[in-house]
Specification:
There is one protein chain. By secondary structure, this protein is mainly α. The chain is built from three helices and no strands. The longest helix is centred in the first third of the chain and has 15 residues. It is extended and about 55 Å long.
Length: 69
């Protein structure tokens, strides 16, 4: 019963979440980005294969090309 109640509460919380498309134009310090990538790299993965690849792109023209692709 406790597990079911927790699962239902989690579903209710996730159902209320929303996304935003309003982003600040302030630059993000490179150290913050590197820390976020290091943290993401510690996420569990099947057979500890670490299948994810992360890239921090700062060149506006390259960002535009990636969005277009």
């Amino acid at each position: 019963e406790v597990s079911l109640a927790r699962a239902q509460a989690f579903h209710a919380q996730m159902h209320r979440r929303r996304t935003t498309r309003h982003f600040a134009t302030d630059p993000v310090p490179r150290e913050w980005i590197e820390s976020a990538i290091r943290t993401a790299g510690t996420a569990p993965s099947g057979a500890h294969q670490q299948p994810s690849t992360f890239a921090a792109i700062s060149d506006p023209s390259l960002k535009a090309a990636i969005r277009e692709a």
